Amino acid sequence: MFPLSALADLNELILRQIRTMPEGGGYATNREATQRLSAAIHTEGVQLRVTPQGATPSYCSGATYLVFLKTVEALERHRQLRLTPEATAALAVRGQPDGTGIWGRWNANGPGTARLFYELGLGRNFTSYAEARPGDFMKIFWTREVGKAERGHSVIFLGLETVNGVEHVRFWSSNQPGGYGEKSVPRSKIAHALFSRLEHPERLNAAPSLPKSDPYLASLLSKASSFAEACKKSGL
What is the dihedral of CA 87, 90, 92, 93, to 10 degrees? Predict the structure, then answer.
């Protein structure tokens, strides 16, 4: 086990969790993928245990959620964090619809993760690449659509790089078609980006007091929003 005292911040711990994740495994958004994601997350009393090796095939929001929970698990294992039984139970994936509970917020269209971070005060949200650091959670919007017609991707930012003279964004997630792994895309292909930095994981203890459902996130299955509204709902 590594000493958490040697870590500069939580971003570094998040990057360490990525290195323990499976590689490949295929990409799918079907019921089987969600069932395997659910089975990879064990919540008993105050004990959180994450075993992602069987969570394949996978999809993007499930992949980033597993890394998020593995980070929480590492903090608890090293006695840097203690969640209540109620907060631990709230982290489970039980097929919650978009906007409902912790997973339903994380998995929602639009600013799901950023909205959750804002509601619980888990960390700050921002849109500037200049402020972004490896280990930040990131929602990519491939087009300007937000909501029912959006094309998005939940990832963990790894940095900017230049490939053949073109600026690229490098990230980790479950990517089509291969599944878990890194990918690099031209920055010009990203219409909008919304970053979330984990700073206060202890505030997950307030999770049981959240409203059962977030009406804004729940509405994005059938309604259109805008990036400006998504940012406002994320505290920007």
Answer: -160
Are 199 and 123 contacting, i.e. CB atoms less than 8 angstroms apart?
A: yes
C-beta of residue 130 within 8 angstroms of C-beta of residue 120: no
Residue 13 in tokens:
């711990």
Tokens of 109: 């269209």
Among residues 53, 101, 103, 46, which one has the least CA distance to residue 75? Answer: 46
**Rg value, the chain, Cα:** 17
Asked whether the whole model's pTM tops 0.85, one would answer yes
Q: Are 29 and 146 in contact (CB under 8 A)?
A: no
For residues 197 and 124, give the distance between their C-alpha atoms in angstroms, rounded to a whole number.
6
Question: What would the pLDDT profile of 33-73 be if each residue is shown by its tens digit?
Answer: 999 999 999 998 888 999 999 999 999 999 999 999 999 99
Instruction: Compute the distance between CA of residue 25 and CA of residue 73 in angstroms, rounded to an integer.
Output: 23
Residue ranges covered by each domain of the chain: 9-96+108-233
| Distances, alpha carbon 224 to alpha carbons 113, 152, 229, 235, in Å | 18, 14, 10, 19
Q: Residue 169 belongs to what H/E stretch? A: strand 166-175
User: Dihedral through CA 206, CA 212, CA 215, CA 220, nearest 10?
Assistant: 90
Alpha helix segments (H runs only) across the chain: 10-18, 31-39, 60-77, 85-89, 101-106, 112-120, 215-219, 227-233
The C-alpha atoms of residue 70 and residue 224 are separated, in whole angstroms, by 33
- The DSSP letter of residue 96 is P
